[in-house]
Each structure stands twice: as C-alpha cells, then as structure tokens.
Amino acid sequence: MFKKFTNSCVFIMNKYLPDAFIFAIVLTIITFVGGVALTGQTPFQMLLHWAGPKGFFGLLPFTMQMILVLVLGSAMAQAKVFKNLLKKIAKTAKTPVRGIMITAFISVVACWINWGFGLVIGALLAKEIAREVKGIDYRLLIATAYSGFIVWHGGISGSVPLQVANQGALAAVAPEIFDKSFTIATSSTIFSPMNLFISGIIIFGLPFVCRAMMPDKEHTVEVDPAKLIEKERAQVEPANFTPADKMERSKILWIITLALGFSYIIYNFTKVGLNLSLDFVNFIFMFVGILLHGNLRNYIDAITDAASSAAGIILQFPFYAGIMGMMTGGNVDGVSLAGVISNAFVSISTIKTFPLFTFWSAGIVNFFVPSGGGQWAVQAPIMMPAGNILGVAPAKTAMAIAWGDAWTNMIQPFWALPALSIAGLSARDIMGYCVITLLFSGLVISAGFLIF
C-alpha cells in the first residue's frame, strides 16, 4: 500500500511537475494575481514590488552565497583525498537498502549541524554511492540526500533561533512587546524538549521512511552512467612547464594562501564556536579545497569544472526574489499578501492551536518566500504579537515559524537546485519521493507542537 502511494506520487510529479524555472514562473503569476485580488493593489504596484529594489535583484548577495556553496563544495569533492573518503563511506553500503539508509542518516545529521554543509555533502555522498551500489534507484537516492534538509531550521545553524538569541532582533519585529534587551536563549529553542523531540524523531525516522519508499525492481531507475563520468583534464608534463606553469604550482604560494585562510578559520572558531554563518562555511569549503588539491593550479581547474553547474541558481533566484518582493510588498495600509495569509490563520487560533497554525501558515508562505531570513521578516511582526496576546511562549512561536519555513522546502525546488545540479537531475525526478518526506515530517512536527 505504501509503495503504491509512493509510486503514485512519483508518477504524478514526473508527469505534471514542470522544470524548476517554469515552476518559478507559475509561482510569479500566482503571487501577482493574489496580490492584486487580496490586497487591493494595482497591477502596476505589484509590478514595482516584483522588479523594485526589494524584488528581482533583492537576493543577489544570497544568490552568490548559494553559487559558492555549490561550486566550492563540488570543487572540494573533486580532490583525491575527499573522493577517497566518500568512496570508503560508500563501500560500506553493500546493498541498495544500506545505501539509502546511510545517505539519509548522514545527510540529516549534517544538515542539523550546518545546512550549507549538509546540502552539498549529502548529494556528493549519494552520487558516490550510486557508483558503488548496483540496483539502487538514483532518483530516490538523491531525494533521500535532499530530504535531510528538512531539519535545518531546527538545527544549530537555524537562522530564526540564532537570530532571536541576539539582542534587538525581537524588538525590531515587535517593538510594542519586546525591548532591545529581550532575547530567547537557544536552550528554549534549538535545545528545548519540544525541538529535540521533533528533530530526534525525524533524524532517526527518516532513514526508515526512505527505505520504505524503495521501489521494486520493475520500477527502479538506476543512474545513467553518463552522469557519473568525470571530465578528464589535459595534463602538462613537468619537463614542459613554463615559468608561469611553475608559478601556478608553486608550493610557496600555496602555503602562504593556506596560512592566511586557516589562520582566520582558527580565529573565527575561537570567537563564535560552532555558530557558523553561510559565508564562513563557504570560506572553510574554499581553503579546505585548496589544501586537498595540493596546489593552486589544480584548484583553479576544479573550480572551472564546478562552475558550469550553477546555471539553475543564476537563472531562477532573481525570479524568487521578485516573488518575495510581491509577497512582502504592502498596500497603503501596509497589508501584504504574506500578511493576509498569516492573519487568516491567526483569526482562527486558540492558545492550543496557535503554534500549529503558525507552523502551517509558515509552510504556505515558504512556497513564495523560500528564505529563512525572509520568512522571519514577513511573519514575525504578525505572529509574535498575536502569540503574545494569546499567551503563547515567544520561543514556541519563533520555532513554529522556523519549522514551517523548513517543512515545505521538500516540495519547493528553490533549495534543491544545488543537489540537483550535482546529481544531474531535474526537480520532477525527486519531488515525488520528497512528498512522502513532507507528509512524514508534517505529522511529526504537528504532533510536537500539540504535545508540548
């Protein structure tokens, strides 16, 4: 019964889900029409929200961060030392079942520790397991690697719980309730019993859910060998090196570069510990990659090879920025489309149901604002005061927004693009399986908010 349902989801997604870019265009149209219909704004006003300063190009810094996550992570993985490590892990997966479960567990734990790291490592490990294990469904394998991302906002790199732990963050969204000194400690968010319950059930349950999704032999789609072929680089014999070639392979320049990079890495760890920003994760990816490749020339070549896979991010992220601009752009009374959605859930909430409805509304808003920081900026000014009036703890409201932001990422191609680029697949190939992860995690998270 479960496999039949999974196969149906896969079939529907394969047949009806368009390319991720077309999906972004459809969301753009829906948001445009919704803004006109529900907030009373004119089409021209919605156009300005879409293309204005907070719209189409509003995610340029973040777009570059995501390109670097993909390119630097992929370049790091091309180093022989890193490849050998992935191969050793992949060789422990003797069967398709073990391959799926190992991928799920490593991906979900890595994403709980740091989402940028987990997003790339999961896909790279899955691709290596596809090389080692015959008879494994490649679509499910990549979907499994991406599914680990579901826990990121409840983990130690979650942007909302880290943000509310800083002075002034809550005062910025609800100054009528919180003063600038008010903060929410991570002991009440990331390390609260409720959050550890939700995270723990998903971390240990996801490998078994992914295992249950494994198709029978008749429906198994193995990897196309062409997707696993690595580009061969032309080698220059040392005897033919020009002075420029020797400089590019100079150990002195390589060591100086590494000394600068790792000096800062060590310094930053002593200052912030494991609270790693996306910029710092990329910084680590870069200098670990330079170290593992052995010289600067090898690293330049690895970056060149990896950069071609960033096309989807470059094309689609500006459109998502435009969608966010329309979702958050308000009319003369300051009412935005995201606000309309959030207020609809607030109006039917009680002290018991408010965290649950906040989670569900955040999941809906996340379709159109697939950014943790953007999600907080949109919903916190509405949900935090409403929760306070109902008597709901601020930490619980904040985590409801955070988990809602993570939840519907499973059926939103925005965050899947790096993994899909590494794997050489399209969104329709994995989204059928991700629907099952969405349903499983939705039940667990909803139960967590009701129980606690």
Description:
The protein has 452 residues and is an all-alpha fold. The two termini are 32 Å apart.
Oligomer: single chain
How confident is the prediction overall: mean pLDDT?
86
What would you call the shape?
globular
Main β-sheet description: none
Low-confidence segments: none
Helix content: over 70%
Helix and strand pattern:
HHHHHHHHHHHHHHHHHHHHHH
- The N- to C-terminal Cα distance equals 32 Å
Round the Cα radius of gyration to an integer and report it. Answer: 23 Å
* Strand content range: under 5%
Number of helices: 22
| Total DSSP E strands | 0
Give the structural class: mainly alpha
Condensed summary:
The protein starts with a helix and ends with a helix.
Summary tags:
mainly alpha, 71% helix, single chain, 452 residues, globular
How do the helices and strands line up, and which of them pair or pack?
Layout: H1 2-16, H2 20-39, H3 43-51, H4 60-77, H5 80-91, H6 96-113, H7 115-132, H8 138-147, H9 159-164, H10 169-173, H11 193-212, H12 243-248, H13 251-272, H14 278-293, H15 296-307, H16 311-328, H17 337-346, H18 354-368, H19 372-390, H20 394-407, H21 413-423, H22 427-451
